[in-house]
Amino acid sequence: MLGCEPGAEGVSPYASAPRVADLAGLPATFISVGAIELFVDECIDYAKRLIRAGVPTELHVYPGVHHAAPLVTDARVTKAMGRDSYEALRRALYG
User: Fold this and answer.
1) Residue 76 located in a structural domain
2) 26 domain-assigned
3) Are 33 and 43 in contact (CB under 8 A)?
4) Count of domains in the chain?
5) What pTM was computed for the model?
6) In the predicted model, is pLDDT for residue 1 greater than 60?
7) What is the rounded distance in angstroms from the CA atom of residue 60 to the CA atom of residue 1?
8) Measured CA distances, 73 to 40, 68, 90 (Å)
9) 59 φ/ψ angles, rounded to the nearest 5 degrees
10) Pick from 19, 23, 15, 24: which is nearest to 7 by CA?
11) How far is residue 90 from each of residues 13, 14, 30, measured CA to CA in Å?
12) How would you label 51-89 residue by residue, b for 16+ Cβ within 10 Å and e otherwise?
């Protein structure tokens, strides 16, 4: 929580990565977001900017998923999200 409305000015790029102006040279990025998450549009826009900057980017948008979905640990989509995140981390660490 940044203590302000989404999209407010003056938020540090260290607090919100999509606020960084120049994305060139950033490391490969994995983005996972629910389709009904408050920040889904911001995540998709950020992924597009990363791709345009030449950053290897993997974006997963999960239909019907909101911010608290991972709390439902036995849901099929939660398990898929965990597998996708784990696989991205495994690829990043071990190739």
Assistant:
1) yes
2) no
3) yes
4) 1
5) 0.82
6) no
7) 22
8) 21, 10, 21
9) -120, 130
10) 19
11) 27, 25, 12
12) eeeebebebbebeebeeebbeeeeeeebeebeeeeeebe
Q: Residue 40 belongs to what domain range? A: 32-94
Sign of CA dihedral 46, 47, 48, 52: positive
**Mind listing the pLDDT tens digit for each residue in 34-76?**
999 998 999 999 999 999 999 999 999 999 999 898 899 999 9
Token look-up 């998709």 returns 44
| Three-state secondary-structure class, residue 32 | strand
Which residue type sits at 36?
A: I
Please report where in the chains the tokens 């999200």 appear, as a residue: 81
**Quick check: is 53 in a domain?**
yes
Can you read off the two tokens belonging to residue 21?
């102006």
Half-sphere exposure of 23 (CA within 13 A, CB side): 19
Cβ atoms within 10 Å of 35's Cβ, excluding its own: 12
